[in-house]
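User: Second chain of the day. Same drill as before.
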Amino acid sequence: MRNSLWCWKNEKLSERLAKVFEGKAIKFMYFQDREMVVDAVSKLVPDGATVSAGGSLTLIETGVSDLLKSGKYNFLDRDSVSGNEEKKRIMLSAFEADYYFCSANAITESGEILLLDGNGNRAAAVTFGPDKVILIAGVNKVVSDLDAGIKRIRSIAPMNAKRLNLHTPCAESGLCTDCDSDERICEIYSIIVDSRRRPWRYTIILVGEELGL
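Assistant: Same format as last time:
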């Protein structure tokens, strides 16, 4: 009973979001579980397309990362090299990708997409460059409004800092303190509010599970 009620609630949420994003010329797709995502992406992105991605636990958890690395696409993979200059070159080349993949840090019920970046490569590629951007997120990323989105970002930032083995105060305390560390990951906040100027550039794939952080 509990699971079925949550499924019902998430489906109703997805119906509301679909209407909101359609009005913003943003494509919206909803799947009840993560197993459906890889097949959806395979249908969205033609074989041989040039693709790139930002770092994302959600892409790993849904199997999309493995799909991108499978040889089906020309994958511009920054993690395939070790040197900083090579990584930077690949991150810059992502601007010319046909498709760019990432998750969001928060999605509001009124249709804003929030991103937080340390280097800025993900926020930059999402807002300009690649022909299409596909954002994949679990329902845990959906919040009521922008204030709740910022609050959510600050609450999960310590876990991301810990995951990345950064030496920041939040990685020690578990709390965001708006620090002055040179390793802080809270450098760039980006908010996408609409896409009618570039209609259907964005696709949001929402999954009815908790994914990522």
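The mean pLDDT is 96.

User: Great, on to the next one.
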